[in-house]
Fold:
Amino acid sequence: MFYDRVESTNDLAKAMALEGAENGTVIIAEEQTSGRGRMGRKWLSPPSSNLLFSLLLRPDLYTEKVFTLTMLLALSTVEAVETQTEVNTMIKWPNDIYVQDRKLAGILTEFSVTGNRLNHVVLGIGINVNWNPEEATGSHMLYPATSLMREAGHTVSREFLLINILSAYETHYMDVSKNGPARVQELWNKKSMLTGRNVSVEISNNEVINGTAIGIDEKGALLVSDIKGQTHTILNGDVHIKNVT
Ligand code: BTN
Structure:
């Protein structure tokens, strides 16, 4: 479903889920007045420039598998960008897409559970497409941003990008349902910008884990080996890449 202006496509998708919207519903907006990012942050995007959408899923899965669905969206986006442009993107765990050290896209996954099973899942993604990030520098910019137009040197069709992402998502989703997450995990790890890098991961309660990122496991958790050789399995957090001096 297509909207000119909504508060947040994730909020609308969640409301529609409660009213019985079906598995696979896609909510797209030209503009969001209260776009949200991870960790309570805002997601700002000028009208009619970028791709902002949410995918509603009703998978028959244990709650712990939810990150696999996010992994699929990050991977599908990377592949769709590569189908359509020459731009080389990488995934920054848990679910950001980068071109070198600039953020191109982010994913916000929200879900409801019944018992230990998923009820509905909303995967919201914002991709900077035909936008000039230089125009948007301000206090809200937590990190350097980029867009496909900036990287490719020309405008990029948002319609085709959406179609390419959804079609890759469907292919991977069916593969995971049939064969498990090993293949997606492998493809994701190949596109991970963290593997082998020194990282500092902020997890809950101000706890920080420092070490070398090894990759992600089949549930989408980040594996970090610390200085003592102990491996930490991290399900949620904010990663900073440390420069080697
Ligand atoms: C992040 O990087 O923190 C995640 C950003 C997610 C933004 C998208 S835009 C479409 C959907 N609706 C929202 O309110 N947020 C997500």
